[in-house]
Amino acid sequence: xxxxxxxxxxxxxxxxxxxxxxxxxxxxxxxxxxxxxxxxxxxxxxxxxxxxxxxxxxxxxxxxxxxxxxxxxxxxxxxxxxxxxxxxxxxxxxxxxxxxxxxxxxxxxxxxxxxxxxxxxxxxxxxxxxxxxxxxxxxxxxxxxxxxxxxxxxxxxxxxxxxxxxxxxxxxxxxxxxxxxxxxxxxxxxxxxxxxxxxxxxxxxxxxxxxxxxxxxxxxxxxxxxxxxxxxx
Amino acid sequence: xxxxxxxxxxxxxxxxxxxxxxxxxxxxxxxxxxxxxxxxxxxxxxxxxxxxxxxxxxxxxxxxxxxxxxxxxxxxxxxxxxxxxxxxxxxxxxxxxxxxxxxxxxxxxxxxxxxxxxxxxxxxxxxxxxxxxxxxxxxxxxxxxxxxxxxxxxxxxxxxxxxxxxxxxxxxxxxxxxxxxxxxxxxxxxxxxxxxxxxxxx
Lengths: 233, 202
Prior knowledge:
- The structure holds 2 protein chains of 2 kinds.
- Helices cover 44% and strands 0% of the residues of chain A.
- By secondary structure, chain A is mostly helical.
- Chain B is an all-alpha fold.
- Chain B contains 8 helices and no strands.
């Protein structure tokens, strides 16, 4: 029997026989945030072992085993459809690949991106602004050189940090609209942001037009504008 | 509609004038992989998007990119404030200066003015999202290259922030592409163009 190879994620490359493709193309495709990829890895290693045996076998013996294998595939398929918890086991608080997840599926002829899982570890709003993301798993700095200076510790920085957490949560919710925990968090940050922004405007001037116009002067135009260099704020 | 908030997304406070840096950072203002191109690309593509998640995502990222456009403008502005003619000539800023003085003009580092030819809006959901993913990577590479040449932390910090945003946006566009393909026939993703061959929302 001739074994063909198929396009796969890097860690499976050159090892996955074509007969694994049905799992990738149909069964696993669309598994979303259901954490089936660990199962998938087990099943693949099973398939690989069979692949090895297969190459060492000949004639009748091989035919028999092929039938047996088909049986195993069915079981494996059932196993894969089992649901697994949304939350992954707690890992050490770190960033980048250590916080990421290996793919659970990789459809042929289509680019593949793993879903960000529900309940992914998060930075605080202040850390998020410094790092450029709320999600340590997505923090992948050039030459591992990340910002160490905190910018969220000024009055405006506090407003910027809360607003940034909202930006990050909104983008996440755009692709995960049913994540109730993220929704709850979003509402909490909205409240904190509105309070902080109102307090800031009272002291330093309006951030949006609806906060302007108090007193007898149109203070919307007051310097500094955001692009102007200033040590203050 | 759009409303202005009188703040940057991330603070830009550059103490030292340095037109040598402004000369190439301007490329993220009006260059082929810059923030203006990103914003106009996503805000234009969103009209053909067939699913609510995609309309939301392209709108939200498109708006955020406008904020990045403003940050790059602030960086270039602060790098070129109070320049002397000697500084301009010594740092090779004379070619920009002669056309724009210390004004901010959307152009690439090479001097090519911003053009819609930098972007595409193809009206095909998969095609547009794949272009968007590529755009985020191109911008990320540009920021890598900028970081290779910048040693002032006042400049590098906001650049690192902007670079990380490209990584996050890439992830979201990737997820968006999966939201599309999950609604298509997994045996042939290209059988139809969901933004043309099917009514929205179906």
